[in-house]
Amino acid sequence: MLDTLNRAIASINQVVLGKEQQVRLAVACLLARGHLLIEDLPGMGKTTLSHALARVMGLSFQRIQFTSDLLPGDILGTSVFDKNSGQFVFHPGPIFAELVLADEINRATPKSQSALLEAMEEGQVTIEGQTRPLPEPFFVIATQNPVSSSGTFALPESQLDRFLMRLSLGYPAPAAEKNLLMGITRRELMQSLEPVLNHAQLAALQAEVPKVQAREAVVDYVLRIAEATRSQPQFAYGLSPRGALALLAAAKAWALLAGRAYVIPEDVQAVLPAVAGHRLRQQADAGGHGGAALVQWLLREVPAL
Amino acid sequence: MSASLIPRISLTWLLVAQALVIIPHLLHVPSWLIPLWLLCAVWRVQIFRQRADFPPAWLKGLLLLGVTAGVLLSHGTLLGLDAGVTLLLCTFVLKLVEMRKARDAQVLITMGLFAVVTSYLFEDSLLSFAYSLLPISALIAALIGMQQSSFNQRPWATWRLAAGLLLQALPLMLLLFVFFPRIGPLWTMPTADKARTGLAESMSPADVAELSRSGELAFRVEFDQAIPPNAQRYWRALTLEDFDGRRWSQAEFTRQARAPLPDWQAQGEPLDYQVLMQPTGQPWLFALDTAAPPDSAGRQAVDFRVQRGRPIEQALLYRMRSWPEAVRQAQLPSLQYRLNLRLPRGFDPRTRAWAAELSQRFGSDQQGLVNEVLKHFNQQPFHYTLRPPLYGQHSVDEFLFDGRRGFCAHYAGAMVVVLRAAGIPARVVAGYQGGEVNEAGNYLLIHQFDAHAWVEYWQPGTGWQSVDPTYQVAPERIEQGIEQALAEEGSFLEGDLLAGAQLRKLAWLNQLRLAWDDLNYSWQRLVLGYQGEQQMQWLASWLGTVDWQQLGLTLVAVIAVLLVLLGVWLVKPWQARPVAQQRYLLAAERLLATQGLVRDSGEGVRRFSQRAQVSLPAQAAAIKAFYREYEQQVFAAESVDEAALKLRYLRLRQALPWWQRWRGKKNAD
């Protein structure tokens, strides 16, 4: 099964060039049943990554372009009167897909954002008094544009906390970009991607993650990290217990990807920037993006053993 | 290496301590040590302020050479106590400018403590002990200051902490003081070769006059009974039997340690007393006649003096028993008989003629002859003075018949010459007479100015008889002391300003002086005198019989128990010990640390292992195996097998042989 997973990752890497680490983290996020926030400039391959992930994993894919006039109904779906049957028929919105790409999530109003985020958290949506389950697996990749943020509604910390990981893709390496420019277009490549995993296999893999061993030594390390964020003066606020849980879950998924049945501190360290980066703020600059520096501090200073 | 490694407080206290350590030594070290110290101190301060650099190696070598040459020039040698201490102080001072790391400062502080101890070799009075608390506490404060932040600005707080620590060490100090065995030659200290005032093996009148001008303390006596009257307190030191016409000296026969023991018979009531004598550099002790020393004190010599095997170089406390009415040598061996009749040829013809006349007049009535001589001193216009005229070649003649001015040495010497010339065996006894009673402590103080000489003559049957011609001339000298005898002349202690006669005239000042002496006496008796015999006796009175072996074992046992308790307290075995995996991990990391590989605190073992494998390709396999095993045991739920981890650790150690570790460590340093 692990071979299959590695083949899936290799396939995605054929499309998303030079981003092995981010692809791996995205897959780990999926395995840990978390949701992914990608924060990057336009045109960095966010959509490509999401799309490739959906295809390789054999997931149905929907994309929602968030705009300031987007309404919750546009995400969740609406009931429309069917004159043939004389009844209101529910037309499911784009959220009813297995992999949803919420593009530029910060452009929508908080009301629409909440609709998505609630669905993410609950795994179901309630429309017109009726609760409808979302498909299983359900995986949201939201993207944010850090620049040209006028007229946007930045996600508050409480919402950010709902994303297991936040990634930023960054510019590709020159060699990867050269390949990108010389090769055929991504869109055509995407068509040639074959699903590597089916739903059953993915579900089995997701079920494997909680079984990965996290012994006391690693749990203590996670606790030390959480404690450091709560006690050290440079942190505006500490990691929430959900954050600590997320860290451990992500580390387990990472260990699984590495083919290990137990977590080692290096797993925690590998996922820490993605898991904790968006949950931390610097005391000196509480509104800023200091999380990365804080994570580096944690990696350096918190004793691994 | 930056100069700021030694914090400000520490440096401050170190400089203060150096000054305090050096001050008491200034009496016996060359004065160029002061500018040397000032130079080094200023240099050190400039280094601290980063205005100067550490001296280069050649300059240090030059300084060392210069200092060695200086010691050689000042003392004439590099060996011996004085030169040794000077050398120690010089290195103590010079170390200041090459003090780079904390370790150097620790060396300096240790040297300082040692230098304080060496000052006790020169002066062990209560005052010097009290003073030495200052440099010691300053040194401890410097030691504490090394552990404090460079930003600490409060030197007095540091000193208070040091004083508190010293106070806490008090019980341990007392324990060691009481129980630590003073094992003979191991603990005998080298002695300062300073000139001492006191009696010598030979005596000319000028020597005694010199002694009479010194207010220095000779010894103290505490009687078990009431203090006998002044006129009975004749403290014998030695007898002078050889006369060369000018000087009296100890006879070779008498001096010999192998000389036979004299026979004598105890009579009357004995006197028991305890003497605490100042170091004299001479082997004889002071005692009243006729002394029967306990074995530990010394042994009786052929002329009834009490002698030790070695010169007394430290204050000595001994008990003594004397039989004032004893009959000494009813039979005189012929060798001693002849010895005590010998006179140099060609001296003092008038005295000899007078003696011959007396001998003829009294015939066999030798007692009458002695009385006649004493009467001569009494009735002729003799004058007791410390400023006698200088007598010529026939000094006895000129003294007896022309000058008639002199003091005890003149009278005793002249009388012995007369008696010998008249055929009566006689000799001069040198010692001390009288002494000052200290009411505060009920003991006697005998000073150098109490030095005295008197006469012993021998009669068949009755043995040696003591007689004091000075008494005939100046009875107040014997009954009230030399101060009274010289009251008119004003020559008492005229050369000694500090202990001067003026001080003794003010009653309250005199009281103060005696009280202070009482304190010093207690110090010497109870603290300095607490060794050897005294220690044994005191311990025996508390613990029953003790022997050194038992005492040593007890001491070792007590210290061992204390150390074990301290160890238990430090290790705290009741707290959870690190599990085996942690111990082996630490051991392995110590191994790798010798190669400069140190795991960062945030670094996991797997990444560190990979780093180590790259750095040490030769040991890569062993490193990998160890860390894999560790990871398996700690992070995977697999069997926790201590032995397997130990095996991997041992393999790793094998892969890194000791020389490689050692070399790596050296390179890392």
From TrEMBL, chain A:
Please report the stretch or stretches of sequence annotated as the ATPase AAA-3 domain.
35-165
Which UniProt keyword terms apply here? ATP-binding, Nucleotide-binding
Q: Cite a single GO MF annotation.
A: ATP hydrolysis activity
**InterPro entries named in the record:** ATPase_AAA-3 (IPR011703), CbbQ/NirQ/NorQ/GpvN (IPR050764), ChlI/MoxR_AAA_lid (IPR041628), P-loop_NTPase (IPR027417)
**Residue span, ChlI/MoxR AAA lid domain:** 228-288
UniProt entry tagged with the keyword Transmembrane helix: no
Q: From which domain of life does this come?
A: Bacteria
Q: Which family does it belong to?
A: Belongs to the MoxR family.
What's the name of the protein? MoxR-like ATPase
* Organism, as annotated: Atopomonas hussainii
From TrEMBL, chain B:
Q: Which InterPro entries does the UniProt record give? A: Bact_TGase-like, Papain-like_cys_pep_sf, TgpA_N, Transglutaminase-like
Q: Name one matching Pfam family.
A: Transglut_core
Q: Where are the transmembrane segments?
A: 79-97, 104-122, 128-146, 158-180, 551-571
Keywords attached to this Swiss-Prot or TrEMBL record, sorted alphabetically, are: Membrane, Transmembrane, Transmembrane helix
The protein's matches in SMART domains, at most eight in alphabetical order, are given as: TGc
Q: Tell me the domain of life.
A: Bacteria
Q: Which residues form the Transglutaminase-like domain?
A: 400-471
Gene3D superfamilies hit by this protein = 3.10.620.30
Q: Please give the name of this protein.
A: Transglutaminase-like superfamily protein
